[in-house]
Each structure stands twice: as C-alpha cells, then as structure tokens.
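Table S2 (text version). Query chain:
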Amino acid sequence: MKLILGGVLAFCLALSAKNCHANEQIVDGRGVGDFIIGQVPPRLGEERLVSRQWQEDENGKRYERLEARVAGIPVDVEVHDGRIWRITVMRRGLRTRDGSQVGDRLQKLMRMNRSLRRELGPGPSLVLFPKDLCGISYMTDADLPESVMRDPSTDLPATFVREARIRWIFVTGCKT
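Corresponding structure-token output:
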C-alpha cells in the first residue's frame, strides 16, 4: 500500500511541476494567457477583473477596456465589437517566447531580435516591431529625436540602446 501511495504521490508531484511550468504565461502574437486576439473575452471572476470601463476611440466609436489579471499580472484588454482587439502588458512578469518582458533593457531585446523595424510612437517614443514575432510590438520608455526615428538607416544612439527599457508590450494578432 505504501508503495502505491508513494507512486501516486510522485506522479502527482511530477504532474504538478509539469503543470506549473506549462501554465507559465507566454505573450505571443495570438494573445496573453486566455485572452486571444479576435476572440470573445473569457469570463472573469472578481479575482481576475480589476476594472471595466467604456471609452471612445479617435473616431468616436465606443469600446470596452478591461484591466484583468493574467497569472496575477494586470494587463489592459481592448474589446471592440465584442472581440479582443489589442492587449497591452505594462508590468513585469509576463514574457514573450524569446524571454523579453516589460522592464528589460533595449540592448537585450535588440540582441534577441536582430530584425527590429522601428516606428515613431507617442511622445515621440520608439516602437519596435520584430519580424520574427508576428503580432507583437515593444514601446520603449525613452524619447528620441524625430530625425533619428524617421530614418531607419540611422543607428540608434548607443546610450539610448544601453539605457532605454521596454515600457509596454502590445499584442495585436498576426495578420496573414
């Protein structure tokens, strides 16, 4: 009997360890956790829903903005016409498949993703789009001169690359 119970316990511990690792939340171009771009948001209990509000986009169209927890980390989920349109990760703790997360230095991101396309974001902050990670973009926490932002042939200043960090990770879905 002890041998059987010991075997069952070992199996349960192994399964638990596997499930803990399997449940590690990965941010990818499809979504974050159970929030999937283009899908209806999952049902959220009080422990996961932080806030829910209605807002208007620049065209005056109303949309729902949810702040919800994924593995305990709050994320913003924009819902247009009942479907998830965009997810924004603004806190450390959820990683992309290459291991990047909010708060990481731009230098690390650029080492992991050698094919980053840059665009001028709000501020003017730098927004980076990796070719290999469809549906994901990274916004940095530092502003750059617009001349550097608009000319992709201009190298980013070395101090910027060393000091800037990932401020937000946007998930918008892959358009194929």
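Notes on Table S2: Residues 5 and 11 are 10 Å apart (CA to CA). The domain at 26-171 is CATH 2.60.460.10 (protein yfey like fold).
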